[in-house]
Amino acid sequence: MKETTLCYIKKNNEYLFMLRNKKTNDPNGGKYIGVGGKLEKGETPLQCVIREIKEETNLKVISPTLRGEIYFYSDTYDDEKMYLFIADKYEGDVDYDCNEGTLKWISKEDIMGLNLWEGDRVFLKELLESDDYINLSLWYEGDKLVRTKRG
């Protein structure tokens, strides 16, 4: 099972999202997601999320908070364990010229209107409305969410 990180960076009432629109054959193509990526050998989730955010946005995040673990199971894509982070302290300015997608600040009120994965809607609602730790499993058939389980 591959391990990845995902972080939602907050600025005032907005969150940084990436519209995945720059890679061919991208499973996330056309969807809005947070920033992050795959853990490298010997890397902790915290080290990974800090590195990935720097690579994708040019921001140096300070003390991102681990808010959950999301497990994805699919009949189409590789199974994945994702460490979910949130961050509101960072240094630097966003470099909007990311090779994986277009970075945009989205107001909290507009997030659920974005083209998101169905499962992302489930954990984003919790992430944005509570401080609870999220432990969630999501099962997909193709791009369709068919089952969710907490804990």
Written account of the structure:
The protein is an alpha+beta fold and 151 residues long. Helix content is 17%, strand content 40%. The protein has one domain (2-150): Nucleoside Triphosphate Pyrophosphohydrolase (Alpha-Beta Complex). The protein has helices spanning 45-57, 118-129, and strands at 2-11, 14-19, 32-33, 60-61, 65-74, 80-87, 90-91, 102-107, 134-141, 144-150. The strands form two sheets. Strands 1, 2, 3, 5, 6, 8, 9 and 10 form an eight-stranded mixed β-sheet that branches. It has a two-stranded antiparallel ribbon with strand order 4-7. The longest helix is centred in the middle third of the chain and has 13 residues, at 45-57.
Task: Tell me briefly what this model is.
This protein is α+β, with helices and mostly antiparallel strands. It contains 2 helices and 10 strands.
Topology:
Blueprint: E1 2-11, E2 14-19, E3 32-33, H1 45-57, E4 60-61, E5 65-74, E6 80-87, E7 90-91, E8 102-107, H2 118-129, E9 134-141, E10 144-150
Parallel strand pairs: 1-6, 5-9
Antiparallel strand pairs: 1-2, 2-3, 2-8, 4-7, 5-6, 9-10
Mean residue pLDDT: 94
Give the topology string: H per helix, E per strand.
Answer: EEEHEEEEEHEE
Number of DSSP E strands? 10
CATH architecture type: Alpha-Beta Complex
CATH fold-level topology? Nucleoside Triphosphate Pyrophosphohydrolase
Radius of gyration in whole Å, from Cα? Answer: 14 Å
Q: Approximately how much helix is present in the residues? A: 10-25%
Q: Percent of residues in beta strands?
A: 35-45%
